[in-house]
Batch of 2 targets.
Target 1
Amino acid sequence: MDPRIEKIQIAAGCVKDWLKGRRPVAGIVLGSGLGKLADVIEDQLVIPYRDIPGFPVSTAVGHKGNFIVGKLGGKTVIAMQGRIHYYEGYGMENVVLPIRVMIGLGIKYLFVSNAAGGVSFKLHVGDLMIIKDHINLLPNPLIGPNMEDEGPRFPDMTRPYDPALIKLALSLSGEMGIELQQGVYLGDTGPSYETPAEYKFYRTIGADAVGMSTVPEVIVARHAGIPVFGMSVITNEAHDDYAEDYQNDGEDVVKAANAAAVKMTNLFIKLIENI
Ligand code: HPA
């Protein structure tokens, strides 16, 4: 058997044993500083990544390492409290392993969130941005022999983020009085933040926000035909001017994400209620 498939099956089998018959309909990935959403999941079961055979453990600031299973918006969900980033040194196969495990458990939707830097000058700290498309500057997680049982060799990417879920989010956010931006997320490897020239370059090629995650997870979900909803919390703004009094800082990113987490959490709950 393909060792990659074996690894997924062993990990998924272990999580399934923990679930004792619970069947999550939605997977949720909680980005830097956004792990608090997990606190409002009811009837919680906590599965530490370190207890799952072959699982990578997140070392990133603001990331815990657990699956949290329980009820959110009246549905059974499985949330990743902490994700794995390519910059941590894990191979792409490990970065997307938790997503493939959730797919193996039968999720019907994937909700992804992240902390991102504003590239567009229209985005400000604390803004919530619906990800309507992405640009991938990380290695593609589907490189290598295709896993035919997961999806096709050349998956379509015409609608990477589900138009119906975007429409639903826009309508619900209107009712809830939450203002949403929409934009293109660019995923790069990090871990260094962008230079002024890179901010300009990314803006020129059509990015609105930049981060170091998410895109590989979305590619793997779309490969398997899972509809995806993505949201960025803007935690810092583009500085193209060699400002003397500014620097990007990981702790500030986590603080800004924490501050916006409540708005995002409420929106995710409503969305899940309505899927
Ligand atoms: N760049 C890359 N990743 C990020 C940023 C950023 O400015 N902010 C939060 N994650």
Target 2
Amino acid sequence: MKRRGFIKKSSLLGVSVGIPSSFALEINEPKVKLKKFPLVIATWDVKNATKKAWDLLESGSSSLDAVEQGCMIEEADVNNQSVGKGGLPDRDGNVTLDACIMNSNGDCGSVVYLKNITHAISVARKIMEETPHVMLAGVGAEKFAYSLGYKKEKLLTDKSRLDWLDWKKKSEYKPIINIENHDTIGMLAIDKNGDISGGCTTSGLAYKMSGRVGDSPIIGSGLFIDNEVGGAVATGLGEEVVKTVGSFLVVELMRNGYSPQKACEEAIRRIVSKKNSNYKDFQVGYIAINKIGESGSYSIHDGFSMTKYENNLNKTFKSNFYSD
Ligand code: ASP
């Protein structure tokens, strides 16, 4: 098919699939533009993580390697108290991690209620690549990680332990919902081949009930990738994301012609417009990218941000939001 014919056909279909080079045609804008990959975006201000991912993408690594190793930066950072080592514990004082990863073939791996191992995202990847399953939980997941050579680690830092003890005094052992307790890292990347992968890793809601699992390891809720369309990832109160299968919704909206920004906005609207929604009491944020490298982010409340590394620039942007 001649190039002009292809553009016309793509425009009619409203999609831009099948462009395997490092350049893609941006067909939804009046003037046809060229976009250059790679590109990586992540929830919140995580420039060290996006830098790691970008460096890998620039050197020709896959988007899967980039999101895994990008997420690992935050997992290892003990100052990030909502991911990996140093994460805030559940209300019984146990740090339990949830993570998932998805590649451009639509394969996925997920780990829930993982204790004693920092790099939940890598365990999720190994579940995807080395087992016939998608998800492993708790003791089974931990055993699997040890079988791969992971060492048992102490995830509860002194700081998180003291914060937990302090919380116990004030909160009388009740779980609280508070936007300061959210900081999951979700990351989406497009590599030089134009292939999309995503990862999401968290210690979950701080001081959650023992056994609680949020959206972050649930494929379709915390994360979804469709390499023909784009990807989306969520942060915030996981229960609300699960109820609306948020990331899948964002990707399906993009499939139906929404821009990443409009798709994130619509997914937030689904949450806040639910009958009896108490959205004033919780935060949810989405970020998304499409196949041609456009991105978007949106949240219920002020305070959410997205970090984007593209064209050699690593920047954090404040997201638009629905309400104060
Ligand atoms: N979504 C995560 C959860 O509910 C929390 C977060 O985003 O920080 O477990």
